[in-house]
Design a protein that fits this description.
By secondary structure, this protein is of the alpha/beta class. The chain has 13 helices and 12 strands.
Length: about 325
């Protein structure tokens, strides 16, 4: 086919989608009357639209006489192109509509291991089943790193403990709270106790999370000892509940875990603490000034899953 038969982008600028639909109808029906009825238009204006299309293209698309209509070689080529254009247009319109409703797009999510030690994985799974057009990227970060990334746009939403962190420009909602318990090897003397005091465990080898990840929570735990004139022996620092649990199971020391933790390994026992002790509250965090409809739908879904009150859904504008 020579260059004069190619449909240029400039030529497409002067066409209307309805002309493409009209042409597709007559190309498939090969009858002007039936094609006009199919697109719900009278035959005279229908025929005029086809004629105008041919004039705009500078090519004859149809051979017609009193008995039959057939496609020219240019018409057959243009028919395939018209089908493709309408398909892409409809796909684009559908995608934009789903984006506007939050059913399509990408979400970048940050989490801590403690946040995932909850119903959060189940809520994410159910959301993915309901919204298969949403792509989700999960990354594990400490709280400080999460908050910085949410501010800069590197994350859309985060799940972590925000204990006394600066929250300027960010919004949050508490999903759940857990008290801390003491995790000890299953053959430890504390397993026979109903509860353990900080004074009793002060001489134990304590496995703690690094202060850099949760500085305020780390300091509050140390203060709980300090108020009683105690100074715990921190023998190991490890990020994440599973790592701390593994060290406890291997007899390397004791650690604090959230109650009802799903990360408890075989060989570990959990013992309640006697004194009041800083707990673990997990929040969902987002930038209130920049989030997509898709992120908003996801956050509402998670909030509903954790039975967060209605004012949260109103805040994110869903």
């Amino acid at each position: 086919m020579n260059g004069g038969n190619n449909v240029s982008l400039i030529q497409f600028e002067y066409m209307e989608l309805r002309q493409l639909r009209y042409f597709i109808a007559v190309a498939e029906e090969l009858h002007f009357g039936r094609a006009a009825r199919r697109v719900h238009i009278a035959q005279p204006p229908f025929s005029q639209q086809i004629k105008s299309l041919e004039e705009e293209l500078g090519a004859k698309l149809l051979e017609r006489n009193s008995r039959k209509v057939r496609l020219t070689s240019e018409g057959r080529y243009f028919y395939q192109q018209a089908i493709s254009i309408l398909d892409r247009t409809e796909e684009a319109a559908s995608t934009v509509g789903r984006m506007a409703k939050g059913g399509y797009g990408n979400i970048k999510v940050g989490f801590t291991e403690t946040a995932m030690d909850s119903m959060l994985p189940e809520s994410v799974r159910s959301f993915s089943h309901r919204y298969p057009g949403v792509s989700m990227q999960f990354s594990q970060f400490g709280t400080s790193a999460q908050l910085e990334l949410i501010r800069s746009g590197g994350l859309d939403v985060g799940f972590s403990s925000i204990y006394r962190h600066a929250m300027d420009g960010l919004s949050s909602v508490r999903l759940f709270a857990k008290n801390h318990v003491l995790a000890v090897p299953e053959d430890h003397i504390f397993t026979s106790r109903d509860s353990v005091s900080l004074a009793e465990m002060a001489g134990e080898h304590l496995i703690m999370f690094p202060r850099s990840g949760q500085p305020d929570l780390h300091d509050e735990i140390m203060k709980a000892f300090g108020k009683r004139g105690l100074s715990p022996v921190i023998s190991q620092e490890v990020s994440g509940l599973s790592g701390a649990s593994a060290l406890v199971a291997s007899g390397m020391g004791v650690t604090f875990l959230p109650e009802n933790s799903r990360t408890v390994r075989k060989g570990i026992a959990l013992v309640p603490l006697k004194e009041e002790f800083p707990g673990m509250d997990i929040y969902m965090v987002w930038n209130s000034e920049q989030y997509s409809n898709t992120s908003g739908v996801f956050m509402e879904w998670v909030a509903d899953y954790f039975s967060v009150s209605k004012p949260f859904a109103e805040e994110i504008g869903i």
